[in-house]
C-alpha cells in the first residue's frame, strides 16, 4: 500500500514510517520541519527511511493546499495518515491563534486537497485532551467532549468535527484516533518524560507542577503504531477510537520509575498547577480491541526502561 503521512518526520510519524517501510509499504512523508523543536532531530528520525527507494520526502506546511494537492496527485495514495499538528497544551494557551490555524485550517486544507484529488481514506491523529476534566473513568468515545480546557484540545475536537463533515458530505472513510500520552524513543524533547529523564541524567532540577498526584495513561510508541496499522487495515466509515494503555500512572510514580532506571535521584522543584492540565487521563480501549484487534502490551516499567536505554545511546552520540 501507499501511505501519505503528514508530520512524518516527527516522533510518531517517523516510527510509523519505519515500520511501514520494513513491511513492504511505500511512504510519502510531508513535514514542515518547523522550529517548535530543533529540525535536526527530525532529520535524524528519518535518516534510515531516506535510504529506502519506497520513501519520499516533501517539505511543506499543511496549510498549503496547493502543495498538498500536487503531492497527492504525483503520489498515488491509498491512505492518508494526518499526524502533523502544533502540539502541546501549555503553549497553546499563549498562542491560541497559531494552534487554531495549524490544527484546524491545516486539517481543512488537507481534507480539501483530498477531495480535489479523489483521495478518500484518512486516519486522523486526535488527542485524549479532548476529554477535558471528564468525571467518568475510564474515558469512553461515547462521553461528551464539549468542554475542552485548552485551545489545543479545542483545536483537536474541531478537526474531528471537520473530519465527520467530509465523511458525511463526500463519503470519506475516516478514523479519528485519540492518542493517550505517547512516549518512547524519539519522543519530542519538550515532553515531560523526555525532559525529566534528561535533567535527572544531568543532575539538574525537574519542575513538578502540583503535588505529583496527576495521573496519565502513558502509551508506548510501539503500541500506538500497532493501533494505527490496525486502523489502516480496518478503515471503513467514520469512527472515533481511543488508543491508550488503559492503565494510569501518577506523576510521582513516574518520577520514581525514572530514578530507578537511570540510577540517579531526581532534584525536584515544586511549582503551582498549570492551567489547561488535566487531572487524569484513562482510556477505555474496548472499542479499539474490537474494531482494530488492538492489544497494547508494554508496561510503563518496561517502556521507560527502553526509553532510558535509547536516551543513553543518544547522549553518548551527542544527538540530544
Quick overview:
The chain has one domain (2-182, 219-245, 282-297): NAD(P)-binding Rossmann-like Domain (Rossmann fold). Helices cover 42% and strands 18% of the residues. The protein has 11 helices and 13 strands.
Please, could you describe this protein's structure?
This protein has one domain (2-182, 219-245, 282-297): NAD(P)-binding Rossmann-like Domain (Rossmann fold). 42% of the residues lie in helices and 18% in strands. The chain contains eleven helices and 13 strands. The chain has a seven-stranded parallel β-sheet with strand order 3-2-1-4-5-6-11, with helices on both faces. The protein is globular, with a radius of gyration of 19 Å. The model has no long low-confidence stretch (mean pLDDT 94).
